[in-house]
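Aim 2 progress update. The chain analyzed this quarter is reproduced below.
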Amino acid sequence: MLRIFAPHPARCWQCLDGTWSHYFPQSGTAISADGWRQGWQVDMEVPGCWDPDVGRLLEWRGQGVARRLFVTDRPGPAILRFGGVGHTATVFVDGRPVAVHHDGHTAFEAVVPHLTAGEHEVLVHVDSGFGAVSGLNIPNDYFVYSGLIRPVELHLPRRVPWLQRVDVNVT
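Predicted structure tokens:
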């Protein structure tokens, strides 16, 4: 959960923390977002990280796909709010890409303009490999946490756009 209080009653939301299915490549370190069915599966808790949870993933540097189903009881826009994904994430809802984010320790949102009422699938393609994308994501003597490392929420606002932030300057 990203907060200890409930948002305004006009904004319905669901906590998506809990058990997610995670898929990893059978060999190598790469798995495509649509190739997750061919990977090996392990169920893990979100928020959580791959590295210490499963011996096979100890110090894993590579790609994986996290999968979860969720149900909405009304049609309309949706916002998936991620507290953090280590390290690069591409989010898909019902097979459609809805967000790309880099930097595992920052929150981000994936906006879905319209969902029907019913069951939906969210896939998060995660890449924790080292590379040129981030100066901090290089081989070093620190532990890089991988996976959906912070909470996930589904918000169902009545419409998009919605008010996200108000700044007031007093002079």
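The radius of gyration is 17 Å. The chain has a mean pLDDT of 85. These observations will guide the mutagenesis experiments scheduled for the next reporting period.
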